[in-house]
Design a protein that fits this description.
This protein is an alpha+beta fold and about 375 residues long. The protein has four domains: about 130 residues, Immunoglobulin-like (Sandwich); about 60 residues, no CATH class; about 70 residues, no CATH class; about 110 residues, Coagulation Factor XIII, Chain A, domain 1. It is elongated, with a radius of gyration of 53 Å. The N and C termini lie far apart (about 150 Å).
Length: about 375
């Protein structure tokens, strides 16, 4: 009888030690986030043995009722009490689909061990936690802007500085969207940028350009016309400024003139038809002869102009007239079938033409009564009639 009582007492005290160890959970967690289950009341005669698990008996309950809940597998999160002497720790997570907080009561089953190598029966512990909906945090991207100091004194110009709101600035975090986080960053940039420039920019001496004018002649007139009066292009004084030097401010004004002056003249200038005609000569690959002399006579037979080959190739200007006689002298007689031709252009596309074919090996050609009063270009060609 005494042995039975002793056994009962041993079991009683052992069970009393066994009941001291338990598991606790935090009162509030975030859906999907890992949290810790921590043991308490552990000692050498009563500590968590093995890894607990969620046991669905009784079935978990929720407030509000009938919410969808899922549990992850419980994992060891720290050394157990039996090896570390510190409270055992385990990790798990709970997921809900609700957009608002859900209170969940669920059962965790675990076993108790002791240093004597014994394992006591399993223990069920009901835990109640409030599961808050998961929240996505959006972090701003970096935002930069240029701001010019605007509190300098008269005659001084403030420098331009860059102000930056770094990425992931805490005050710009958003639980709404990426766009909202970036808008917060932009608003912060707008709010602080000017003050930053006024505090960190410098004030520089300012130089302004003097007025400058240059004249340009229209250069897109057709070949039968000359440009009219030159067209001035003016940059007014003080249009450009510089914090470097007066020369730099004036150079900016000159750069505008260089960039725009000619185009302005072409757009606003005039063209005046020429009162002269240009005479040119080209040997069309005929090696057997060349023009050595070109004489121009008026109706009275008076010699007006006398040009050599080099002058003709370079081009010569003579007044327009309704009655010229042109006398040309050629050299070379290797091919009696050579031709001399002129083309007088009266406009961009209109021309008059006349040619003389030499089949007697002559050296002199005469074009009589040539009317070039409306012509702007008189072209001479010498070539073989069989070329």
């Amino acid at each position: 009888m005494k042995k039975i009582l002793l056994t009962i007492l041993i079991l009683f005290y052992a069970f009393a030690g066994f009941t001291q160890a338990t598991i606790n959970a935090p009162s509030s967690i975030t859906s999907g986030n890992t949290f810790n289950l921590t043991a308490s009341g552990e000692n050498s005669g009563s500590y968590i043995f093995g890894t607990p698990y969620v046991y669905h008996s009784p079935t978990y309950t929720t407030t509000p009722a009938n919410q969808s809940v899922s549990f992850s597998t419980i994992q060891q999160a720290g050394y157990p009490y039996s090896t570390s002497g510190q409270p055992s720790k385990f990790s798990m997570s709970i997921n809900t689909t609700s957009s608002s907080a859900v209170t969940v009561t669920f059962n965790v089953r675990f076993q108790i061990g002791n240093n004597s190598g014994g394992v006591f029966p399993t223990v069920d512990k009901l835990l109640t936690v409030t599961v808050n909906p998961s929240v996505t945090t959006y972090y701003n991207t970096a935002k930069s802007g240029s701001f010019t100091r605007n509190n300098c004194g008269a005659g001084l110009t403030g420098s331009t500085v860059t102000y930056t709101v770094p990425a992931n600035t805490p005050s710009c975090n958003s639980n709404i969207s990426q766009a909202d986080a970036d808008t917060k960053a932009q608003n912060l940039l707008n709010a602080n940028g000017q003050a930053y420039a006024n505090a960190n920019g410098v004030c520089n001496q300012t130089y302004y350009n003097t007025a400058i004018t240059s004249n340009f002649s229209k250069n897109d007139c057709p070949v039968y016309a000359n440009s009219g009066p030159s067209v001035p292009y003016t940059v007014p004084g003080s249009k450009y400024s510089s914090t470097i030097s007066q020369e730099d401010a004036d150079a900016k004004a000159q750069a505008e003139i260089n960039a725009n002056g000619q185009a302005n003249a072409n757009a606003n200038g005039t063209c005046i038809n020429k009162t002269t005609m240009t005479i040119t000569y080209t040997n069309q690959g005929y090696s057997g002869a060349s023009i050595t002399r070109f004489r121009v006579f008026d109706n009275n037979g008076t010699l007006l102009y006398d040009f050599n080959e080099a002058q003709l190739i370079a081009g010569q200007e003579i007044p327009r007239s309704s009655a010229y006689t042109f006398v040309l002298t050629t050299s070379g007689n290797t091919d009696t079938w050579k031709s001399l031709e002129y083309r007088a252009l009266d406009g961009p596309t209109t021309q008059q033409a006349q040619s003389i074919v030499d089949n007697n090996n002559s050296n002199t050609y005469t074009f009589s009564g040539v009317n070039v009063s409306n012509s702007y270009l008189f072209q001479l060609f010498l070539y073989s009639s069989f070329a």
